[in-house]
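PROTEIN DESIGN WORKSHEET
SECTION A - STRUCTURE
LENGTH: 273
TOKENS:
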């Protein structure tokens, strides 16, 4: 019999949430997630947003949402408690130390990376507490080209990676991403990847859209081509619906499929006795 689903990991922008609709997250999805939680399934929002920015998004969602966990900046893990978010201190501290170390060792290559951003005429380049280089490209084509050039620069030597969501990008340590953070959360919960659902729409979701971390995968109709290909290759759900509507459709499809598998296993097991 299949193991029961125990964890749902959803990206936020473009997956659960869109500013093009009101409410920004469909009420039917909010209700379905609450029902899953009532049945003992944990829900994590796994996003590139910082924690305050995610809280702002949740406050403006227009529907009630109470995720059990937040994975933010594609790397740090927090648990919801009655008094607010509580950090997974050991993981988050290890993550901070690994990034501090790699950035300290990368001064020369960071200068080269900055030259590439200047050559590509990136107007908005800045540093924040998570990355010494963050940038907003002028359009998607430019963003993809910069990503390709920096991947080539970092290949096999620096311990740096590009974390990109459409035109927005930052640097990261290659061991820390949405996938490895989801793996750590699953380890903490004592569950197997077969018990995990992951849903995402952009290239920063690719690391978690993998059977290594989640057996059940969902891409909404607005997902980029790489995400659709990745989810299709692993027999996930390519929803014909966009954003949160697609996640709702995907979740219902997966829950129905799992019930069917389990019912079949139950009949088969009954037939043997
Ligand atoms: Mg997204």
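SECTION B - SEQUENCE
RESIDUE ASSIGNMENT:
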């Amino acid at each position: 019999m299949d193991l029961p689903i125990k964890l749902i990991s959803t990206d936020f922008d473009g997956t659960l949430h869109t500013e093009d609709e009101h409410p920004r997250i469909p009420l039917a999805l909010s209700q379905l997630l609450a029902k899953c939680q009532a049945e003992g399934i944990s829900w994590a929002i796994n996003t590139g947003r910082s924690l305050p920015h995610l809280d702002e998004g949740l406050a403006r969602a227009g529907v009630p949402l109470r995720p059990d966990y937040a994975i933010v900046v594609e790397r740090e893990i927090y648990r919801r408690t009655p008094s607010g978010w509580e950090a997974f201190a050991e993981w988050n501290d290890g993550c901070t130390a690994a990034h501090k170390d790699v950035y300290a060792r990368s001064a020369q290559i960071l200068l080269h990376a900055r030259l590439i951003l200047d050559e590509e005429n990136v107007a908005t380049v800045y540093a924040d507490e998570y990355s010494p280089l963050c940038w907003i490209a002028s359009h998607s084509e430019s963003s993809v080209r910069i990503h390709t050039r920096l991947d080539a620069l970092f290949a096999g030597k620096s311990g740096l990676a590009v974390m990109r969501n459409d035109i927005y990008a930052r640097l990261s340590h290659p061991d820390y991403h949405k996938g490895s953070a989801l793996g750590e959360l699953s380890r903490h919960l004592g569950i197997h990847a077969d018990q995990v659902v992951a849903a995402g729409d952009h290239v920063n979701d690719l690391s978690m859209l993998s059977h290594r971390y989640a057996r059940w995968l969902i891409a909404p109709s607005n997902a980029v081509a790489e995400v659709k290909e990745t989810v299709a290759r692993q027999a996930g759900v390519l929803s014909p619906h966009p954003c949160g509507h697609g996640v709702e459709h995907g979740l219902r499809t997966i829950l129905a499929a799992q019930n069917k598998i389990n019912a079949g296993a139950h009949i088969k097991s009954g037939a043997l006795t």
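SECTION C - NOTES
The first strand starts at residue 7 and ends at 10.
Residues 131 and 171 are 6 Å apart (CA to CA).
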